[in-house]
Amino acid sequence: IKHWLRQELRDLMLDYLSPARLTKEGYFNPQVVESMIKRHLQGQENYSHQLWSLLVFEIWMENYL
Question: pLDDT for 8-29, tens place per residue?
């Protein structure tokens, strides 16, 4: 998952977890998520499981709510 989010799924993650989208929905703190993404992509932290969960939730919301 760590590799996917840094490579193949990077653009998808950045789209679904964008500050504008998260602000509009109001479920998650966009600044916290943005910081997690930045640190993950720079290799400073491994937030793959947290970011994956957020991404899957956002995709689920788009399809079912």
Answer: 999 999 999 999 999 999 999 9
